[in-house]
């Protein structure tokens, strides 16, 4: 969903989704997430947080969040 403020027009949900997913990918890449179970726990925790924050636009956020994770995590990690 496009948002406009003093900085211009941007897709708030997409930007927040990419930032949230990027932290998870970085932790995974750096070895801070040590198992698939821990990865899925982190993903679900992040999704639940954003579902509370964005009750009306969560589906848009989630679409971008999952797409980013699929693009940047190994294919062996099913989401």
Structure keywords:
79 residues; 3 helices
Break the fold down into its secondary structure elements and pairings:
Elements (H helix, E strand, L loop, with lengths): L1 E4 L2 E4 H18 L6 H18 L4 H15 L7
Antiparallel strand pairs: 1-2
As laid out across the biggest beta sheet, the strand order is 1-2
Distance between the termini: 24 Å
Q: Please state roughly what percent of the residues sit in beta strands, choosing from under 5%, 5-15%, 15-25%, 25-35%, 35-45% or over 45%.
A: 5-15%
SSE string, helix = H, strand = E? EEHHH
Q: Unreliable segments (pLDDT under 50, ≥5 consecutive)?
A: none
The main β sheet shows up as: 2 strands, antiparallel
How many alpha or pi helices?
3
* Class per helix and strand makeup: mainly alpha
Shape: elongated
Query: Which range best describes the helical content: under 10%, 10-25%, 25-40%, 40-55%, 55-70% or over 70%?
Result: 55-70%
Multimerization status? single chain
Mean pLDDT: 95
- What is the number of E strands? 2
Estimated radius of gyration: 13 Å
Protein architecture, described:
It is a single chain. The protein is mainly α. The protein has helices at residues 12-29, 36-53, 58-72; strands at 2-5, 8-11.
What is this structure, in a nutshell?
The chain has 79 residues and is mainly alpha-helical.
């Amino acid at each position: 969903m496009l948002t406009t403020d003093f900085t211009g027009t941007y897709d708030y949900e997409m930007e927040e989704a990419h930032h949230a997913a990027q932290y998870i990918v970085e932790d995974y890449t750096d070895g801070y997430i040590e198992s698939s179970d821990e990865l899925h726990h982190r993903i679900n925790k992040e999704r639940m947080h954003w579902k509370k924050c964005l009750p009306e636009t969560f589906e848009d956020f989630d679409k971008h969040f999952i797409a980013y994770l699929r693009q940047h995590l190994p294919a062996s990690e099913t989401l």
